[in-house]
Amino acid sequence: MVHHDHEPGPGPQGLPITRPPYGRITAIDLTTGDHLWMVPNGDGPRQHPALRHLNLPPLGHMGRAAPLLTKTLLFVTEGSATGLSLPPGGGGRWLGAYDKRTGRRVARIPLPAGATGAPMTYMHGGRQYIVVAVAEEDHAPELVALATPR
Known about the structure:
- By secondary structure, this protein is mostly beta strands.
- It has a single domain, classed as Lipocalin (Beta Barrel).
- It is built from no helices and ten strands.
- The protein has a four-stranded antiparallel β-sheet, with no helix packed on it.
- It is globular.
- Residues 2-8 have low confidence and may be disordered.
């Protein structure tokens, strides 16, 4: 489940007035309801001039993140700034890949723009592909296809 914990407040220097994570990914055991792991989704405002010197871990982005679960990995986007309801500072131009058992991020794949839809997957010629629709105000909409290594 992708969860956005807080709406951003108009806090000092434009930072949220609530504590992070501002967006998180939580694995829930559907049999017991137990939370198995939780990780922030995205870096959040940790590069803000008021926070940069603190060397903070990822704080999570608010926005329209979308998940895709495969046999071993969970892929999650960070959303696009073109979203009409995206809060200030939300979204990001990344596709995260997480070990679905542990929540450990195994890859952070740069995208040319923020994701505007959920990723999808298909098999062709023995390879698995992940496709993501992306767009930003400065980047025309397009589909980005990523393939597993040979």
